[in-house]
Design a protein that fits this description.
With 467 residues, this protein is of the alpha/beta class. 38% of the residues lie in helices and 21% in strands. It starts with 5 loop residues before the first strand and ends with a strand. Bound molecules: nicotinamide-adenine-dinucleotide (NAD).
Length: 467
């Protein structure tokens, strides 16, 4: 994806880049355009800080709890800045800040378990867990704070230090978060760097980094894995999704329509685990299209700082162009619009919430990730056909099944090839659960204790039994 515009002093390299408010399309601030060469010093410092940070688990717990408190204290400033640069409604930014603090608190109290192996041999074998060293985190623009916390909370709790790079579309709230946390964490335990590419590429390939944890698109994930291969750093990749919602023939459309709508449109559809395709029994197709289109027409779209707004703008100009292009392609392929289908007049990156019907199954809005406020609703004739279609893309992040008979719905959910499947919900996550995509949607496991162990390595000590 294109990156933001550089601001340079004539005759010198760019020193900053513009940050745009997606509700206006206007630049409202700048962030430092750090250069790849600056990472050497940052990573040496992270390496030095690691020795103290890894040594004292009780001090880490206390520091991470203090970090959670500090995030809450700065909550209003963080949320406003987040809405300004990301576009989401202020209430959703406040919820994101709350989830950031909750994640810190959850991992502050999580410790790895030392285990003994008892396999009958005359030795004591004990598995202990060691941190890895400086970890690099690279995150996208859709949930900048919450996804950053999903990286730094487990990594720091495990005793690693971290260099964190936000997306150049949303560097400001993360930069503020970095300074809030710097006041309560030891120096250089968490460093936020901002800049345009190739800063991320250099961070992923830097020989001082022992684990690269990345969230973003599939193509960039592949580039990150290739970059990290040089130093054989561990790689965790949380990548794109194209989640299907499969409605069963006993579904109560009135009852689920709101939940289904928001599962697709929350954060303007810019959620890795949004519902991105809906499969409906042919008999119910018109009713479901109508229920979703009604909601799409009625929802309040506007700037995130307006308290009436439920749906903000698309985050950035290249993503808006992508949403527009994938919709136009669907229309050219024969789809029809049940609501929306176009940009909204006026300033900012607004796109009318769009429900598409009659979409050919091969159209990119079905086979690829639209990552925006556009939803195709597809009819099916047999359940096998629906399950095959749901499983028929390269993605495998999440999926959901909607119906009244919960046992039957669960049996269908069990057939979905993805990391998490919900019944009558979508994208509801607990801090304590594993989070892992299959196929192109990811490598490695984040979330819960699995996220902690993903930032540790086993260290085994053998010693002979006494006597
Ligand atoms: P992106 O892949 O374009 O960028 C992600 C991050 O990588 C940004 O910080 C970007 O600056 C950086 N980057 C770009 N090129 C790089 C390179 N060559 N080397 C290293 N870093 C590089 O993704 P995006 O457009 O910011 O975010 C949207 C994507 O993220 C969607 O595909 C979405 O599904 C995915 N996502 C996945 C999850 C998940 O948990 N699975 C969560 C949120 C978003």
């Amino acid at each position: 994806m294109q990156t933001p515009e550089a601001r340079s002093v004539p005759g010198r390299r760019a020193v900053s880049f513009s940050v745009v408010d997606p509700a206006t399309g206007e630049t409202f601030d700048e962030a430092s355009d750090q250069q790849p060469g600056e990472l050497d010093d940052v990573i040496v410092r992270a390496q030095r800080a690691w020795h103290g940070w890894r040594a004292d688990p009780a001090a880490r717990t206390a520091a991470l709890r203090a970090a959670a408190d500090a995030v809450e204290t700065a909550g209003d400033d963080l949320a406003r800045l987040l809405t300004r640069e990301q576009g989401k409604p202020l209430a959703e930014s406040c919820a994101e800040v709350a989830r950031t603090a909750a994640r810190l608190r959850y991992f502050a109290d999580l410790a790895p378990r030392t285990r003994r192996i008892d396999d009958g041999r005359p030795v004591h074998s004990e598995i202990r867990w060691r941190p890895l060293g400086p970890v690099a985190a690279i995150v996208p623009w859709n949930f900048p704070l919450q996804l950053a916390a999903a990286k730094f909370a487990p990594a720091l709790a495990a005793g690693n230090t971290m260099v964190l790079k936000p997306s150049p579309f949303t560097p400001l709230a993360t930069r503020l978060l970095g300074s809030v946390l710097a006041a309560v964490l030891p120096e250089d335990v968490l460093t936020v760097v901002t800049g345009r590419e190739p800063l991320g590429a250099r961070l992923a390939s830097h020989p001082g980094i022992r684990h690269v944890t990345f969230t973003g698109s599939v193509p960039t994930g592949r580039a990150v894995a290739a970059a990290a291969a040089g130093s054989l750093a561990r790689v965790t990749l949380e990548l794109g999704g194209n989640d299907a919602a499969v409605l069963l023939d006993d579904v109560d459309v009135d009852r689920i329509a709101d939940r289904l709508f928001w599962a697709a449109f929350r954060n303007c559809g810019q959620v890795c685990m949004a519902v991105k395709r809906v499969y409906v029994p042919a008999r119910l197709h018109a009713e479901v299209v109508e229920a979703l289109a009604q909601r799409a027409k009625a929802v309040a779209v506007g700037p995130g700082l307006d308290p009436e707004t439920r749906l903000g703008p698309v985050n950035n100009a290249p993503q808006l162009a992508r949403v527009e292009q994938i919709t136009e392609q669907a229309l050219a392929d024969g789809a029809r619009v049940a609501s929306g289908g176009h940009r909204l007049d006026g300033p900012g990156y607004f796109f009318a919430p769009t429900i598409l019907t009659d979409v050919p199954p091969g159209s990119p809005v079905v086979t690829e990730e639209q990552f925006g406020p556009v939803l195709p609703v597809l009819p099916y004739r047999s359940l096998d056909e629906a399950v095959d279609a749901a499983n028929g893309t390269g993605f495998g992040l999440g999926g959901s099944v909607w119906g009244t008979d919960l046992d039957r719905a669960e049996a269908v959910a069990d057939r979905l090839e993805c990391g998490t499947a919900w019944i009558n919900h979508h994208a509801e996550l607990s801090l304590a659960q594993p989070f892992a995509g299959v196929k192109d949607s990811g490598v490695g496991v984040a979330g819960g204790p699995w996220g902690l162990y993903g930032n540790l390595r086993p260290f085994v000590v053998h010693r002979p039994q006494e006597g």
